[in-house]
Amino acid sequence: MVQHLLGRKGAPTIARIPPEVLEALNDGLIPTANLNEFLALDLPRFARTVAGHIGVDAQHERLADTLAMLEAFPKVKRHEHVARAFFDIVEPLAGRDRIAHALATHPSDIARSWAAQWVMFARMPLAQKLRSVRRFAADPHFGVREIAWMAVRDEVAGGVDTAVPLLRPWVADADANIRRFASELTRPRGVWCAQIESLKREPWRAIELLEPLKADASLYVRNSVANWLNDASKTQPEWVEQVCARWERESRTPETAYIVRRARRSMK
Questions:
Q1: The overall pTM is greater than 0.85
Q2: Containing domain of residue 245, as a range?
Q3: Is residue 258 part of a domain?
Q4: Taking Cα atoms as reference points, which of 11, 75, 5, 86 lies closest to residue 42?
Q5: Any idea which of 29-43, 110-124, 189-203 has the lowest mean pLDDT?
Q6: Alpha carbons 100 and 183: distance in angstroms, whole number
Q7: Is residue 177 situated within a structural domain?
Q8: Domain count, the chain
Q9: How many angstroms separate the CA atoms of 29 and 230, rounded?
Q10: Inter-axis angle of helices 254-263 and 219-233, nearest 10
Q11: What is the residue-wise DSSP string for 3-56?
């Protein structure tokens, strides 16, 4: 039983992760609590364990080849390669929907993140990708939610005018995680991801996604909106200042004041 390990505070260093926690992580029984646990994972062992959980041959040549070359890649990038190996193995199988569901509902956040990355590899239009990634955008684990928006970032970067209308309902959703997804996905610069050059030049093309969030009740959302505007201020400071000044006039709330203050933090 691992119930007593859920809700724990993550260890401050990899060396201080309790052996019991590390075993449960490698066995795919519990989600990670912080970055240290993510980095401490024995990825080859974990991948083979997850393969067994979802009904994939743990000794499959495609997976074995990927695991053998992991050391050549940065630690975070290794997970994308593992996710791709699983995708390539499962895609031609008759039972692929069952396997995909097993991965998407796995107890480990890392396994669910791999399922989210399958959206990246699938050949389908952006509207369909957004429908597929939604469950991961609403995932209870922060790591899965980050992978969710990264999985469709390239399509959005290459088609802003297609993406913005598709995301309008997301910013009106009752779930703060869904609202935040739309904001974080379209940030002009973002973190650890491709920049959206069109929104760096013309951030106003996505303003309709930000307007409904200018006084959002969720700090998680407000931070994303503020970071979005701060990104835009690096290339279009005058426009960002105009937006901030207008929001201050239109929405005299502590929530808006917080967003505006953080949005201006890089502006002189």
A1: yes
A2: 158-268
A3: yes
A4: 75
A5: 189-203
A6: 27
A7: yes
A8: 1
A9: 39
A10: 30
A11: GGGTTPPPPSSGGGS-HHHHHHHHTT-S---SHHHHHH--HHHHHHHHHHHHT-
